[in-house]
Amino acid sequence: MSINEDNVLLTGRSGFLGHQFAKVFRAIGLNVRGIEEVGAQKIDISNPFRLPTRRNHSLVVHVAGKAHSVPRDEKEKQSFYDVNFDGTKNLCLALQRAETLPECFIYISTVAVYGAEEGTFISENHPLNGHTPYADSKILAEEWLRHWADEHSVKLGILRLPLIVGPNPPGNLGAMIKGIKSGKYLSIGQARARKSMVWAEDVARIIPILAEKGGTFNLTDGHHPTFGELEEAIAKTLDKRMPLKIPHWAAKGLALTGDIVGSRFPINSDKLRKITSTLTFDDSKARNILGWNPTPALSKIHEIV
Fold first, then answer.
1. Which CATH number does the domain 8-169+197-224+281-296 belong to among 3.40.50.720, 3.40.50.2300, 1.10.3210.10, 2.40.128.20?
2. How far is Cα of residue 135 from the mean position of the Cα atoms in its chain?
3. Model pTM?
């Protein structure tokens, strides 16, 4: 397909990843439109809506979603399904009311769909065992989109992303940066666990190629740094001392305290397990089919702290 000016519709444009997408799209000559820019009223995708313009878009990039929070009750659990699953369906139904459907629909998903807490080079063939509301809502959205795209002859691209690196990052990376900056971050054990990550702008730049090919792909930066490497890069960029190290047994005691105290405490057993377990993903499919050639995220730390 040929992506011309004014025909890319982007959801979640005001969010962390959507902002990076919009910046890159403009740089490569696309006059992208956010879903909130097609009319005067603010659109809540968790409820059925109509696009207030009949303007057609050959490419839709669906970034909007709910993440980076641990639900405390059933209402908060349901909100993941309202936004990530129902929101995706509502967007597609709104697109069906346009004069023509898009040629391609790209969905930004997550490696959380695999449900793995540890492992190395997990590929797209791994079973989708994610059981958290976040992961399960993304799995349901992926499955629904495959049926919808097949029924309406829309090319579908799905990107499953690990930790996303970019300016002002949310989630655990943002918390790590703030902790090291304030001197309140503790490095646990040997900090040898590796994690996959990806530079946000690289993800945006692969979108036009994915729009041509379609398919489901993991994306990583190919380096999978250790926690120690990430801590050192952040500390050096901030001109701060390396974080104080504590042994794993001491961290385990703190985590048990966190299990009792709750979300007010900075660590619990689940967080400790994630910090000390290697979890990496295989992006060889994207390299072979899409020509994926990513930037090492550590080389961009100076742009995010």
1. 3.40.50.720
2. 11
3. 0.91
